[in-house]
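re: the backbone from monday

yeah here it is again, tokenized this time
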């Protein structure tokens, strides 16, 4: 197609037109899209082409933990670009070595080696490949209500509707139920019951799938996109013990939860559990340059000490990505962002959301920690009927989402849930401002609750 631009067309208008003509977007029916053109971003805010500002309560795709355009991270990328833009993985370079040190030192236990990837999905692909090679087994167990990425094995590990169209039943993945008290698969009434029953269910699944056929259990330390279900105390320890008993590798997917999001460097470390492999992406460098990776235990690393690991990427440990990771991790450390995220969760976000749950009948459940929270909207608090069907939207949720945008927020809305996932360094004032908007949006949602008189 020829470029039909005119002299009078503005830069944002041209961006929009060319997007519609040439850009193919993720997970979408292309003709339905009307993407907002963003022209500027700073800290917790972005601006559209008309100069309207939006509070970014989504951190984009829950990746921008140090906020937009953090000057130290931007400068690190600029300086690295001036020195050495790209380098093949077989060489050593200061920023890659330093990024690996910083990540492994923050990882739990003996996860002392880092294999760098381009993002979260390929990190999970490689973690699974390592587990398969080390165990000589093929099958992978993952939970329903999970997301592990868009590539073939990762999307098949995923326990949400994005798997359905990609699932030919040939990737060796088997799904089981994780703990989730509000919608318990085990009819539990307490977190203790949920924990015990979910662990028994996993053990039974392993027994009937054949323990000697299973290479790995892959779990998000806190399932994120699927609804921020913080596991009950003892669950991850229980999974660790079961995996050890059956010689199954435990893979913790920390792509969303890592690097401050859950108020810790890694949520699984905070739970006192060391997996065999841990995958990360997003917050490692706040997504300023594509980067992910696998943190590898000594045992698995030593397996590949004398035999070649059959996998690699042209951009493994890309210098611009590594430089941005070094800068982002140092920013998080120097500016106390882990503690800030934890404090925001404990003292600001959590209390406000629980208060909203008491006054809004549409708010069925509130879950989370740090700057990773989900609000579960229901049309009937008694039956817990979701405000939108699983895997879909609804007029009520569309109205809530549109309302938040008109109030000046970029929200994260998924099915019947609003997620509160701002940057780790958002100010208290901006956090309250966003929560005020959500409070007002819930008043709208209350109108859709059965028995409401409007
Ligand atoms: N794992 C989890 C828990 C995620 O949340 C995501 C992305 O949202 C991924 C994996 C996939 O990461 P990426 O989109 O970088 O491939």
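seq for it, each position gets an aa:
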């Amino acid at each position: 197609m020829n470029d039909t631009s005119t002299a009078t067309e503005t830069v944002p208008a041209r961006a929009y037109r060319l997007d519609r003509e040439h850009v193919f977007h993720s997970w979408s029916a292309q003709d339905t899209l009307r993407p907002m053109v963003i022209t500027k971003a700073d800290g917790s805010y972005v601006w559209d082409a008309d100069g309207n500002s939006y509070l970014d309560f989504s951190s984009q795709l829950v990746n921008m933990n140090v906020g937009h355009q953090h000057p130290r991270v931007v400068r690190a990328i600029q300086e690295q670009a001036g020195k050495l833009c790209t380098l093949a993985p077989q060489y050593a370079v200061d920023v890659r070595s330093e990024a690996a040190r910083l990540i492994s030192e923050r990882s739990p236990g003996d996860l002392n080696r880092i294999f760098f990837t381009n993002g979260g999905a390929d990190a999970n692909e490689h973690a699974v490949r390592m587990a398969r090679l080390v165990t000589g087994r093929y099958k992978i167990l993952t939970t329903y209500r999970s997301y592990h990425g868009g590539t073939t094995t990762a999307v098949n590990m995923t326990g949400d509707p994005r798997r359905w169209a990609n699932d030919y039943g040939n990737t060796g993945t088997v799904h089981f139920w994780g703990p989730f008290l509000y919608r318990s698969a085990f009819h539990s009434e307490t977190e203790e019951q949920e924990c015990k029953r979910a662990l028994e269910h996993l053990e039974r699944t392993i027994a009937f799938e054949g323990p000697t056929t299973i290479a790995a259990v892959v779990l998000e330390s806190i399932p994120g996109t699927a609804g921020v279900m913080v596991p009950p105390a003892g669950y991850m320890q229980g999974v660790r013990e079961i995996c050890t008993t059956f010689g199954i590798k435990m893979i913790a997917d920390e792509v969303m939860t890592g690097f401050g999001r859950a108020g810790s460097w890694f949520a699984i470390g905070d739970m006192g559990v060391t997996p065999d492999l841990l995958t990360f992406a997003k917050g490692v460098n706040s997504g300023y340059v594509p980067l992910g990776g696998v943190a590898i235990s000594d045992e698995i690393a030593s397996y590949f000490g004398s035999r070649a690991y059959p996998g690699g990427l042209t951009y493994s440990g890309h210098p611009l990505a590594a430089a941005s990771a070094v800068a982002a991790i140092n920013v998080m450390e120097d500016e106390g962002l882990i503690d800030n995220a934890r404090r925001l969760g404990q003292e600001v976000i959590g209390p406000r959301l629980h208060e909203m749950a008491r006054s809004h009948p549409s708010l069925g459940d509130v879950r989370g920690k740090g700057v990773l929270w989900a609000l579960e909207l229901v049309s009937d608090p008694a039956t817990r009927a979701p405000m939108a069907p699983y895997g879909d939207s609804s007029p009520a949720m569309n109205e809530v989402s549109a309302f938040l945008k008109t109030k000046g927020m970029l929200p994260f809305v998924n099915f019947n849930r609003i997620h509160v996932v701002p940057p780790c360094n958002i100010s208290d004032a901006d956090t309250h401002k966003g929560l005020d908007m959500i409070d007002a949006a819930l008043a709208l949602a209350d109108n859709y609750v059965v028995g409401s008189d409007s």
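Residues 124 and 175 are 16 Å apart (CA to CA). The chain is about 40% helix and 15% strand.
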